[in-house]
């Protein structure tokens, strides 16, 4: 074997040793963060259900990548017939293909797929501000179990007036039934400690977003609402405002009553 070959093998061994040292150091750092409760974007998964969002998905994924320096994991549960999944994969997202079965089914799959300790749900229509991710993570590090983006705090002028009225009504109904004031029950942008969503049984589909706020709140978890800016969506909405609104209202009443009964 030539000297150059020996030199190459020696360098490879050195690189391997360095790599092992880095792996051990990274593992120790991760354990230290977990023990202290301090999470970084390496501990974050951003998840979403996607359905024919080829107009917006690239922008959303690019924003996540920029804000988290490419460290956050992204999971899309997709039932599209357009180029949405292709674009998502091109941007490094994990895509799980699923027949369209509704909002809750997609989000449930997206939330339970990753194994990182902090999960952020969002929509793929570019309405939610990915620049808020550092603030959400900071709230989790401060002890929050759930951080919920309040779209209505700043007025949500980009939201259709009928939808805005409905969201205020949903919050009023939930607040009355829970005996605790909430401002935005149906926001699509929230951060959760992973163990919270694992411990809570979910039952709703269209009303899942409200359920994932109400159940933790009524079970005594540290739930915080944080104002966020809401932008005009890219692409067409898929939700029927009348039928969907009725389903959400029914979910809110059902979940609140179930949680009240749990206390007895």
Describe this structure in words.
This protein is an alpha/beta fold and 264 residues long. The chain has a single domain (38-262), classed as Alpha-Beta Complex (Spore Coat Polysaccharide Biosynthesis Protein SpsA, Chain A). It contains nine helices and seven strands. Strands 3-2-1-4-6-5-7 form a seven-stranded mixed β-sheet. Helix 6 (161-178) runs parallel beside helix 9 (241-262).
Structural key phrases:
DPhHxTase; alpha/beta; Glyco_trans_2-like; globular; disordered N terminus; Spore Coat Polysaccharide Biosynthesis Protein SpsA, Chain A; transferase activity; 48% helix; transferase
Short note summarizing the structure:
The protein is an alpha/beta fold and 264 residues long. The chain has helices at 3-36, 57-67, 84-90, 103-112, 133-141, 161-178, 194-199, 208-218, 241-262; strands at residues 44-50, 73-78, 94-97, 118-121, 146-150, 190-193, 223-227. The radius of gyration is 21 Å and the shape is globular.
Average pLDDT rating: 86
- What can be said about the biggest beta sheet? 7 strands, mixed
Structural class: alpha/beta
- Approximate helicity band: 40-55%
Low-confidence runs of at least 5 consecutive residues = 1-19, 22-27
Strand order of the largest sheet: 3-2-1-4-6-5-7
CATH topology: Spore Coat Polysaccharide Biosynthesis Protein SpsA, Chain A
User: What is the 3D shape?
Assistant: globular
Report the portion of residues in β strands: 5-15%
């Amino acid at each position: 074997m030539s000297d150059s070959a020996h030199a190459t093998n020696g360098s490879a061994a050195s690189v391997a040793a360095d790599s092992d040292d880095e792996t051990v150091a990274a593992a120790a750092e991760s354990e230290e963060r977990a023990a202290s409760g301090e999470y970084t974007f390496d501990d974050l998964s951003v998840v979403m259900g996607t359905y024919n969002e080829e107009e917006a998905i690239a922008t959303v994924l690019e924003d996540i990548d920029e804000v988290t320096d490419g460290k956050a994991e992204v999971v899309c549960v997709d039932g599209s017939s357009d180029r949405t999944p292709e674009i998502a994969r091109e941007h490094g997202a994990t895509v799980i293909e699923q027949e369209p079965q509704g909002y809750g089914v997609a989000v449930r799959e997206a939330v339970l797929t990753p194994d990182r300790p902090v999960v952020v749900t969002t929509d793929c229509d570019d309405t939610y501000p990915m620049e808020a991710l550092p603030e959400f993570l900071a709230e989790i590090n401060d002890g929050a179990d759930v951080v919920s983006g309040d779209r209505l705090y700043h007025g949500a002028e980009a939201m259709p007036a009928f939808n805005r009225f409905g969201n205020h009504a949903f919050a009023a109904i939930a607040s009355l039934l829970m005996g605790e004031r909430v401002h935005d029950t149906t926001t699509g942008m929230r951060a959760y400690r992973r163990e919270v969503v694992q411990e809570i049984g979910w039952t709703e589909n269209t009303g899942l977003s409200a359920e994932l706020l109400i159940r933790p709140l009524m079970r005594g978890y540290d739930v915080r609402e944080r104002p966020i800016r809401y932008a005009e969506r890219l692409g067409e909405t898929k939700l029927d405002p009348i039928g969907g609104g009725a389903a959400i209202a029914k979910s809110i009443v059902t979940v609140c009553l179930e949680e009240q009964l749990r206390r007895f």
